[in-house]
Design a protein that fits this description.
The complex is a heterodimer. By secondary structure, chain A is of the alpha/beta class. Chain A folds into 3 domains: 173 residues, FAD/NAD(P)-binding domain, CATH 3.50.50.60; 116 residues, FAD/NAD(P)-binding domain; 122 residues, Enolase-like, domain 1. Helix content of chain A is 23%, strand content 26%. Chain A contains 11 helices and 25 strands. In chain A, the strands form 7 sheets. In chain A, strands 3-2-1-7-19 form a 5-stranded parallel β-sheet. In chain A, α1 packs parallel to α7. By secondary structure, chain B is mainly alpha-helical. A two-stranded antiparallel ribbon of chain B has the order 1-2. In chain B, α7 crosses α10 and α11 packs antiparallel against α12. Classes of the chains: A alpha/beta, B mainly alpha. The interface between A and B is large, with 58 and 60 residues.
């Protein structure tokens, strides 16, 4: 019986394992040095904040793996011997494979700052980071977070929930500036400040100051300001976690290089998830994609290939979501931080509440390109269809009532949105009444 | 806290002694004949420190006398009032303690003080928790909500209260004095029974914790609406109407309490009383059938069982207000789901058997000129079935386990494992309903907030991460999974039955390499 070994038990590796099991009778082995069982990384913040216990982050009960004949090995892979198809583990054991899937995820970026490895300095990615932040929080009164992205906001929210003050250093002039347009950046920035975060834009880290106890006791910014703190959170993005692969003969760049079938340069070895880097990116997408669902899709895809029906990575239209303290964010399609060529946009924000939508379309064809929503939930299936069918902005605007996914009884703002849309643009769109949403799906 | 402590120690305050006048006034002719001599010898004039001690002696004599009759087969002499109720009534009239003489003061010291105290605590959340939104910080660090010692103490207190309420009501006589003044508002000079005390406590707990819900979910209109709804139905239907109707000579019944949750509906005395109560009584009787057989399944078809469980029901109302801080404690394991399906459907079967026994008994009794009827089928007495159901399901399951164990098993263990009405509606919801929780395509990140905060122990995430809709018989539609989801993945919806289950393929939306439903 052929044996598939998967390194990494995150969402990518585990999805691959589950789908290989669905499609075949192969022996499956998943190796992880992080935790014994798969857990949802996205929920680590909720464990720290006391919303959940760690065991609640596991999407499958512990008996699931044996029942589905997926062997779990709690160990660290030290070396891949591609010639003999063999892995050497930290414990000294070795494991042979016919097919190997590398799904080792990422690690927080460190840009060579002085003091970046001091105790008290950490990122937020792994289970070990959660243990570390528990430990670091014990004596902490203030923290400095470096890097204005999603993990940074999560970390700020976490620390504040324990009464630890937060100074947030953001290199750009607004929050998540490389992703969000001006208006949204402002909206979120204001919201973050409302939660008593000391948010500093255009501020970069110079070095982390070491105290007499050998721990971080503060940071110094490029402007020369010193900020006292006991925790330094490094959240300036993540990069592929692939050090142990470097001498194996598997081609790497920033990540493990793969083709559209997620195959590396060596036959029978695949890479998926955060650690994979496409030699040729899917049009309109980045070569390294580090979000939850792309990992899942890569896992689904590679399982097909390994089980004998080669399948290329074909993610549908881009989508994502996040939550910034109390503001939920969803996006479908592409809304660039700066309007692209030939693109037009429309932004609506509630006069007093933190609710906004931002739509982008092609000026010449009126093709709908993407939407950002804040404080309003929208239906993925409808937007997915509109994006695939290259529907017009008029159709999207006219059907906003049906696209709304907010809970029942919520106040709706489609009338205001459409009125303003018509007044700001040359369009004159009639808002259609809400219909059962599946009726709009033609497939 | 102080108020709760005062309330808790009231049973130990003051003293009890039976006077001759009270005995002559409270005892029926038969009881007087049977018990007068022993009471005069052993009880009258004797001072007891607690109503419990007092009642123990009273019950001992009562039972002894009855036992004697049974031995001598003097069936017509036996007294059929339950000993606990007999003792309660006597004890209520025999107090000479500080509580009985200062009812208003104790009401202020307990109820009013408790309400002010807890509201003060709750209202601070407006400021302390910051801007509106989901605020579950620290729940699992708090010993009242993570099965810590405060939680265990709370459960201990609640269980003790229920045990006394159901089985030893005479022990909490002093507590009922505290609410006499409120009973008096309905009817001059009327005295509160233990059930009035319970009803009032129930309403107040729901109102105070309802305020907490209003503050906690002030950003979420669905939560606001259904909290308002359960408060309305509890206060107006379950409490006020039941108190007010009798003032007009009408039977005081809770019009929203549907069979088989209302298991006493077909009891002989109930039907008899309704039939004797003229037009309104007949209306109640007919309404009872319409409610259970037509209104309930029809509304479940259109809106799911949530219309009852988390919008109308009293048990649900308490669970959604007083019980809300404990919702995360429900068990999400597969074995718990299996146990749930066995237990709740067995209770439904038990309720059906009870209905057959009791219904047959009542039917024959009403058509019998002597009013006796046939009280047993196959040699099994309807009274025995009633007693067992009342004890096991009505008292132990619904009360002691269902509410007493909020801080241990979560706030819906009765609704999930024991309620026969929930089982009945669940079958409709699962197989013939327009209700579902829609999963929003591929947005789920498997974080597990939905499953953690599902009071019914549904592993919501297991469906959401596969892009499937949640169609489960146990879902009471509280809407909290949708509220706590950080990615806007879940929406409670009513819609055509077609495609109600959502994505059935192994692949989640967002992956174009496959056909979704291949």
């Amino acid at each position: 019986m052929s044996k598939v070994v998967i390194i990494g038990n995150g969402i990518s590796g585990i999805t691959a394992a589950r789908h290989i099991r669905k499609n075949s009778d192969k022996e499956i082995c998943v190796i992880s040095a992080e935790t014994e069982h798969f857990f949802s990384r996205t929920a680590l913040m909720y464990v720290y904040m006391g919303h959940m216990r760690f065991q609640d982050t596991k999407p499958y009960e512990d008996w699931f793996w044996e029942k589905n004949r997926i062997d779990l090995v709690f160990d660290r892979v030290q070396q891949i011997d591609t010639a003999n198809k063999k892995l050497t583990l930290q414990s000294g054991k070795s494991i042979e494979y016919q097919d190997l899937v590398i799904a080792t995820g990422s690690k927080p970026n460190k840009f060579g700052w002085k003091g970046q490895d001091l105790p008290g300095v950490q990122g937020l990615y792994s289970y070990q980071d959660l243990e570390l932040i528990e430990e670091n929080s014990k004596e902490a009164k203030h923290a400095v977070i470096v890097g204005g992205g999603l993990i940074g906001v999560e970390l700020a929210e976490m620390l504040l929930s324990r009464g630890i003050g937060v100074t947030f250093l953001v290199r750009e002039s607004k929050f998540w500036g490389n992703v969000l347009p001006e208006e949204e950046g402002l909206l979120i920035s204001e919201h973050i400040k409302k939660h008593h975060v000391d948010l500093r834009f255009n501020t970069e880290l110079e070095e982390i100051i070491e105290g007499p106890n050998g721990r971080a006791i503060g940071v110094k910014t490029k402007d020369g300001e010193e900020i006292e703190c006991q925790i330094v959170g490094l959240t300036a993005g993540v990069s592929p976690n692939i050090e142990f692969i470097k001498d194996s003969g598997i081609e790497t760049d920033r990540g493990v290089l793969v083709n559209e079938y997620l195959q590396t340069n060596i036959e029978g070895i695949y890479a998926i998830g955060d650690c994979a880097q496409f030699k040729k990116a899917v049009p309109g997408r980045r070569p390294i994609e580090q979000v939850w669902y792309t990992g899942r899709i890569m896992g689904e895809t590679v399982a097909q290939t390994i089980c004998g029906s080669p399948m290329s990575y074909q993610p549908g239209p881009w989508f994502n979501s996040a939550k910034f303290f109390d503001i939920e964010y969803q996006t479908y399609g592409v809304v660039n931080s700066v309007l692209g060529e030939n693109e037009a946009d429309f932004y609506w924000q509630h006069p007093s509440k933190e609710i906004a939508v931002h739509l982008v379309w092609d000026e010449s064809t009126n093709e709908f390109k993407g939407i950002n929503t804040f404080g309003i939930r929208m239906r993925h299936e409808l937007f997915n269809q509109w994006l695939k069918e290259k529907s017009s902005i008029q159709e999207v605007i006219a059907n906003l009532k049906t696209a709304n996914f907010d809970p029942e009884f919520y106040a709706t703002y489609e009338n205001e949105i459409v009125t303003k849309f018509n007044s700001k643009t040359a369009f004159n769109v009639q808002l259609k009444p809400k219909t059962w949403w599946r009726k709009l799906l033609t497939s | 806290m102080t108020a709760l402590s005062i309330f808790t120690i009231t049973p130990f305050l003051g003293s009890f002694s039976l006077t001759e006048e009270v005995m002559l006034e409270k005892l029926s002719e038969q009881e007087l004949g049977n018990l007068e001599q022993q009471f005069r010898e052993q009880i009258i004039g004797k001072e007891y420190a607690t109503s419990f001690g007092f009642s123990r002696d009273v019950i001992a004599i009562y039972n002894e006398v009855n036992e004697e009759f049974r031995k001598n087969e003097q069936w017509d002499q036996i007294m059929y009032t339950a000993p606990k109720d007999f003792a309660f009534n006597l004890a209520k009239a025999s107090s000479n303690g500080v509580v009985a003489t200062n009812k208003w003061m104790f009401f202020l010291l307990t109820f009013v003080l408790a309400i002010i105290g807890s509201l003060t605590y709750i209202v601070q959340d407006l400021k302390l928790l910051g801007p509106a939104g989901i605020k579950n910080d620290g729940i699992y660090h708090d010993s009242s909500m993570n099965r810590g010692w405060v939680g265990i103490l709370t459960a201990g207190w609640l269980v003790s209260f229920y045990v006394l309420l159901y089985f030893h009501p005479y022990a909490i006589v002093n507590m009922t004095y505290v609410v006499d003044p409120i009973k008096g508002l309905f009817k001059e000079g009327a005295e509160a029974s233990q059930w009035f005390l319970y009803g009032l406590l129930y309403c107040i707990a729901m109102i105070v914790m309802g305020v907490r819900m209003y503050i906690k979910y002030r950003h979420n209109k669905y939560q606001i609406a259904r909290t308002t709804s359960v408060l309305f139905f509890q206060i107006i239907f379950a409490f006020l109407l039941v108190e007010i109707l009798p003032l007009f000579g009408l039977p005081g019944r809770d019009l929203k309490n549907a069979m088989p949750l209302d298991y006493t509906f077909l009891y002989k005395y109930n039907v008899q009383e309704l039939l004797d109560a003229g037009m309104f009584g007949t209306f109640l009787l007919v309404w009872g059938f319409i409610l259970s057989l037509i209104v309930v399944p029809t509304l479940v078809y259109f809106y799911g069982k949530r219309w009852y469980c988390s919008w109308v029901c009293g048990c649900g109302g308490l669970a959604e207000t007083l019980g809300d801080p404990y919702r995360q404690l429900s068990n999400k394991k597969m074995w718990a789901w299996k146990m749930e399906r066995w237990m709740i459907h067995l209770v439904l079967v038990f309720a059906a058997i009870l209905t057959i026994f009791v219904g047959y008994h009542t039917y024959t009794a009403i058509n019998d000129p002597n009013g006796e009827g046939v009280s047993s089928i196959l040699g099994i007495s309807a009274y025995d079935v009633r007693a067992w159901y009342g004890f096991l399901i009505g008292a132990i399951f619904a009360g002691i386990i269902g509410t007493g164990f909020y801080p241990i098993f979560g706030n819906r263990s009765w609704c999930r494992f024991g309620c026969p009405l929930a089982a009945y509606m669940g079958l409709v919801q699962r197989f013939k309903s327009r209700f579902r929780i829609t999963t929003n395509g591929g947005q789920c990140i498997s974080c597990g907030n939905c499953s953690t905060y599902c009071e019914q122990g549904i592993d919501v995430r297991a469906y959401a991460q596969k892009g499937q809709n949640i169609v489960r018989s146990s879902c009471v539609g509280c809407g909290v999974c949708s509220a706590v989801c950080p990615r806007g993945v879940l929406k409670l919806e009513n819609g055509p039955e077609d495609n109600r289950f959502g994505n059935e393929g192994p692949i989640v939306l967002g992956n174009d390499g496959f056909k979704l439903n291949a």
